[in-house]
């Protein structure tokens, strides 16, 4: 089963590598990704990403992955559709 995770992250060197590496190390596969860049012109540049992820073995919880992503340096906001639909 795949889940969508929406992430706001700073546009900084290595930010996407850190994010993708974390997702893969935590036992998830990325099935799709879309990204939009935002530029404020005052140092407030960020990206909005939507990841379609699935657990490799079916035992991983996307809620835990969202909390781990939220602790990454430069992440501004994380929301997964499973938690949003449950609320």
TrEMBL record:
Species annotation: Brevundimonas terrae
Gene3D superfamilies in UniProt: 3.30.70.260
Full protein name: Acetolactate synthase 3 regulatory subunit domain protein
InterPro entries in UniProt: ACT-like_dom_sf
């Amino acid at each position: 089963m795949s889940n969508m995770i929406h992430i706001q992250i700073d546009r900084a060197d290595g930010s996407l590598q850190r994010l993708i590496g974390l997702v893969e190390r935590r036992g998830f596969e990325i099935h799709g990704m879309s990204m939009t860049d935002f530029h404020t012109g005052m140092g407030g540049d960020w990206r909005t990403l939507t990841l379609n992820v699935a657990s490799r073995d079916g035992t991983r919880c996307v809620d835990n992955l969202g909390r781990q992503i939220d602790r990454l340096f430069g992440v501004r906001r994380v929301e997964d559709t499973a938690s949003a639909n449950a609320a």
